[in-house]
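pipeline stage [seq->struct] | target=dTTP/UTP pyrophosphatase | organism=Candidatus Polarisedimenticola svalbardensis | residues=206
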Amino acid sequence: MQKIALILASASPRRKELLRRVGLQPEVHPPDVDETIIAGESPAALATRLASAKCRQVADALDAGSDRLILAADTVVVVDQAILGKPVDQDDARCMLESLSGRTHQVMTGVSLHRTDTRRQADGIGVTDVRFRVLDTAWIDWYLATGEPQDKAGAYGIQGAGAVLVDSIRGSWSNVVGLPLEMLPGWLEALGLSFQDLSVQPTRLP
């Protein structure tokens, strides 16, 4: 059976790597969507709205002639219902890390899947609770020196050196990275697809 081409509507190298690790080889088509927050919009609503908008934009830009699956996602880090985006500078990153220190926050990833031949779309969200250890000045100075915080929502990356800042998680680890892989098969089924319709052989790990 011919495999269905997977289009990743995201410029995130971390999402591409997550998909590669489970045997998927997406073609990348980064979207260009206005990510301005609507007044009164909840973090979950923002993540799902942006994922859906990214998915639709890429779907509209592609030819509808072949059967392809478009996947888009948007991840937000939330503490006290406040959304933490990517830090603008070192001081901003420090403030974010201080706000997460010793506390539990949520990582929400909205996901949207669109099948081009049927024009059916499935949307969902993954939520993971992440608890940080107490971070004193030495911890924060050390982590800032790694350079990791600068392009990460919430100023940390759990897949890198930021892993040692975490005390515990409840829920999907891959969701914190940017895509809840555990939920993907269920969303595919909603579109009449199986994981095997997309998958090639999983990449051998070193």
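stage status: PASS
auto-comment: The two ends are 30 Å apart (CA to CA). The first strand starts at residue 5 and ends at 8.
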